[in-house]
Amino acid sequence: GIAINHFGRITGSLGHVVGDELIGQVAGRLKPVIDSAGGELYRLDGLSFGVILPALGDEAALRQLLDRLLQTVDFSPSRDHLYVLGDLVNRGPDSAGVIELARRHAHCALLGNHELRLLNFRRTGDPSHLKKYDHDTLAQLSAKDWAYLANLRLTYSIPEWSTVLVHGGFLPTQPWRSQGARIVTRIQVVG
User: How far is CA 163 from CA 6, 92, 109, 157, 160, in A?
Assistant: First the structure.
């Protein structure tokens, strides 16, 4: 999500009309960048935006898009939060570069099914679940990359948004906190 910092102060001192104008300006800046990637920009709540992007199979294109978005919002890790929802690896030839981007910019990066599969292989040595393209990724990851992947969170709760971030999804019949990595990194559609 993309949220406007200190929005309450802005509307409190300048009024809701100015706040509405600010939201429109931010959306106007973000929309062309998101549209150019075939994505969707939507409002999460009164002051936050969400972005849904198609799976970009080219990590270079993803890095360019991320750079454009970060420049568009004048991103600063000291005041802004970037959430990466998994699949940092196996989406192109430079998984290590994507991990480095997440390490530099992400407030929080979450475990996806691709990271889970590689971490399971590293833990067990069992190659039976590896995909053909995993071998190229395995060859390029450094000890620093593995340490980063091993510390990825499964979920991230943002109470002020009444939101829990996850790579895949949750089973609606179970409490989200009790659902394991094999479930929440793989679910796409329930029903």
Answer: 19, 30, 15, 6, 8
CB atoms under 10 Å from CB of 184, counted, come to: 24
Tokens 């990359």 locate to 145
CA distances to 9, 73, 81, 87 from 149, in Å: 37, 27, 19, 11
Average pLDDT over residues 3-21: 71
Alpha carbons 184 and 154: distance in angstroms, whole number: 8
Paired with 155 in beta bridges are 166
Burial status of residue 44 (CB atoms within 10 A of its CB: 0-12, 13-18, 19 or more): middle
Residue 177 has a CB neighbour count (10 Å cut-off) of: 10
The pLDDT assigned to 117 comes to 96
Maximum Cα interatomic distance, the chain, rounded to a whole number of Å? 60
